[in-house]
Amino acid sequence: MAEVNLKPLADRVIVEPLEEEEVTSTGIILPETAKEKPQKGTLIAVGPGRKDEQGKVVPMDVKVGDVVLYAKYAGTEVKLDGGRNVLVLRESDILAIVE
Question: Which one of 5, 68, 78, 80 has the minimum C-beta count within 10 Å?
Fold first, then answer.
């Protein structure tokens, strides 16, 4: 996991999507157009949390390094220097932490 120079705000997180297998269990190689959009990734940066009505920060339930499942079309894709793609998501777009 490389250093990232993005600092998410409020309840946002930065996810590095985990690429799926390019070959099926039967040995069929999948072209880029046939692959499903990834829904699993590793958190590489986490914001401080959202503020409630009284202005207190509600801490995040996730931390850097967690592997998470997220909604299929959630977030904004960002291309970093070096050609690495990451997603910026809200914490509410995260469906589960993979244990």
Answer: 5
Please state, in angstroms and as integers, the Cα–Cα distance from residue 53 to each residue in 8, 12, 57, following that order.
21, 18, 10
Question: Which residues are CB-contacts of 68 (< 8 A; sequence separation ≥ 6)?
Answer: 15, 40, 41, 42, 43, 62, 94, 95, 96, 97, 98
Q: What is the pLDDT of residues 45-90, one digit of tens each?
A: 999 999 999 999 999 999 999 999 999 888 999 998 888 899 999 9
Structural domains in the chain? 12-98 (2.30.33.40)
Report d(CA 69, CA 95) in Å as an integer. 5
Residue 70 identity (one-letter amino acid): Y
For residues 47 and 50, what is the distance between their CA atoms, to the nearest angstrom? 8
